[in-house]
Task: inverse folding
């Protein structure tokens, strides 16, 4: 445990920007922030960082709450539920940032900058040509503070951080260990933009301080911003929180998991029929390893065993095959039949025969990977199927044989009382008696009655499909070979 957490209530947060549908990485980061706070008897909160007005998306904020609720990650404070440090939305805290920016100017830790975009571009081009790191060259730092103050009343300007020119900024990252940056290589970051809005850097530090955040756990893309944040804490004279930077989720080709390549919004996982329990389990394993090497565990088990020192330092690969495997496993083994039925309800197509749900469900349970598969796994029970003659001609079976197999099957089935046992018994004995190729014969029947090659077990399927439809389909197929 860290010095900070010994003396203070541990408080963690996520600070998502409402710029689109909540990303699966937001769920991933939230999960670990929640676990850390939970483990220390602290609080996990949500703050909305909506100062980037150009990227603001209406409705995105609600989706963040809905997505985390679906995952089962509760927050203690936020815009939606309030809390002692409200408002939790940055656009409602503009006066606060302004006040702190002015304080920095007064102390000489920040300065007004009047450079135009054209000037900045010329500066950047010259630096690039000279093989230097493109960054603000600090020219407005030289202005007399009084003159700058007066100009700021009338001229368009930004406020920049006066980053120390010498020395280094270092910290012990709770995940990545010692990290340090040369101050001279850290840019004089804009803190207040020309539209009067703060940048992320100022707002995040002010808010984390005022909201008493003790541990900042976030994606590693923020590592290079951390020296700026530490500089701000130091300039304000505030205690610096602990930082923990988590590796970014990667595609199997190690590129960053992004919406251009994949469906990455939490809502899309919900809509496809992933179980939140399975996704949470999967996300836990991406960032952390279980001390007892368990692979399948629920959120409570995770909360009980979680410790930051078992967190991943290397980029976790988001393996959809593994996620699908896990989802299927949860569907097969972790839900009661009644619960599964409830979860499947929203995925049932409108023509699904609800009365048959209880008989159909046991047949498909083992084959469901996603809840949304329910339609493709059951449609032949209640929709007409189309069977092509060619689809039945396989494994060297000639037309005469197929015709005979279909006719004999019809006759045999007519003799049954349509129980599973009798259906199975007559069809099996038919196959044995004629010494038909087992694979060929039963696959033929399967395709004839369902239109598919992969279905629930054949005899059960025939039983549930019912006499009328089974005979109809067998006759129709037979007519193809007449
Ligand atoms: N608004 C930032 C984001 O969207 C928050 C980064 C942080 O946690 O400091 O990821």
Result:
């Amino acid at each position: 445990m860290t010095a900070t957490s010994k003396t203070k209530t541990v408080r963690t947060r996520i600070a998502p920007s409402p710029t689109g549908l909540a990303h699966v990485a937001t769920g991933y980061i939230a999960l670990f922030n929640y676990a850390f706070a939970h483990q220390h008897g602290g609080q996990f909160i949500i703050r909305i960082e909506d100062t980037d007005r150009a990227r603001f998306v209406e409705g995105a904020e609600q989706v963040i709450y809905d997505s985390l609720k679906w995952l089962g990650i509760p927050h203690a404070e936020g815009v939606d539920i309030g809390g002692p440090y409200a408002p939790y939305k940055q656009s409602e805290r503009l006066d606060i940032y302004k006040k702190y920016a002015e304080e920095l100017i007064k102390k000489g830790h920040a300065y007004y900058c009047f450079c135009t975009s054209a000037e900045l571009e010329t500066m950047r081009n010259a630096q690039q040509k000279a093989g230097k790191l493109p960054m603000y060259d600090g020219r407005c730092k030289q202005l007399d503070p009084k003159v700058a103050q007066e100009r700021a009343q009338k001229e368009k300007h930004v406020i920049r951080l006066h980053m120390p020119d010498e020395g280094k900024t270092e910290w012990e990252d709770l995940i990545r260990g010692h990290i340090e940056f040369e101050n001279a290589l850290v840019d004089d970051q804009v803190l207040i933009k020309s539209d009067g809005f703060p940048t992320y850097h100022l707002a995040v530090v002010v808010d984390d301080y005022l909201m008493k955040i003790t541990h900042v756990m976030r994606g590693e893309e923020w590592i290079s911003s951390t020296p700026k944040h530490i500089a701000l804490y130091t300039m304000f004279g505030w205690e610096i929180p602990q930082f923990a930077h988590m590796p970014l989720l990667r595609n199997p080709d190690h590129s960053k998991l992004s919406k251009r390549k994949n469906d990455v919004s939490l809502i899309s996982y919900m809509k496809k029929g992933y179980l939140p329990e399975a996704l949470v389990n999967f996300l836990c394993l991406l960032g952390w390893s279980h001390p007892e090497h368990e692979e399948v565990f629920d959120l409570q088990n995770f909360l009980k065993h979680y410790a930051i020192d078992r967190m991943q330092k290397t980029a976790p690969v988001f393996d959809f095959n593994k996620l699908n495997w896990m989802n299927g496993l949860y569907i097969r083994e972790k839900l009661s039949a009644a619960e599964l039925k409830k979860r499947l309800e929203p995925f049932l197509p409108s023509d699904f025969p609800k009365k048959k749900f209880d008989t159909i469900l046991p047949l498909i349970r083992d084959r469901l990977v996603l809840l949304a598969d329910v339609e493709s796994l059951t449609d032949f029970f209640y929709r007409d199927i189309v069977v092509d003659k060619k689809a039945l001609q396989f494994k060297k079976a000639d037309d005469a044989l197929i015709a005979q197999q279909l006719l004999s099957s019809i006759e045999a089935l007519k003799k049954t009382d349509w129980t599973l046992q009798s259906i199975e018994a007559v069809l099996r004995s038919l196959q044995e008696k004629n010494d038909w190729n087992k694979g060929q014969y039963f696959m033929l029947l399967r395709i004839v009655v369902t239109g598919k090659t992969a279905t629930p077990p054949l005899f059960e399927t025939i039983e549930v499909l019912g006499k009328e439809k089974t005979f109809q389909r067998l006759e129709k197929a037979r007519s193809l070979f007449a």
